[in-house]
Here is the input.
Amino acid sequence: MQPWPRLGSSNASAFFTFRLPSRRSLIPGSWESRSRFNLDTVWDAIHTFIRPPAAALLAYAAAGGAAPEWRWGAALIAGGVALASHGTKASARAAVNATPEPFSNWILSFGEDVLAVWLAWMAAAHPLATIIVVAALVVLSIFLLYHLFRFARRALQRLLAV
Here is the structure.
């Protein structure tokens, strides 16, 4: 089997596992509506240790013809970008999962999938434009991470003050 169909089937299984709700998950307080938060949060926590190192290894391997210091630089940049984007995604997912209604989860999941497919197409068709888009998304991710963690810190302080 070629790598692209495997990647597609992997993404399809993740889509059907995490994105499509059962009828009972629409009922606030049902087991499925409460467990979705835990499953997504655990999935994101596991992928925190998978995605950034995988991006770093991929960049290191892709820069195979360059000098070793350039390869390490590419690995560090790719790992940093992957960590920033994953951190933003995981933080946004945790914030959205805290809401009792399922529609914001579906919209966020659909937006993630569309953005991933669009960026993959952009990287193949217009690599230079993709660099600009990714740089803008990294800046946006860092901005959002800062504000999400600031919000979480204030919420935790209020919770501990009570």
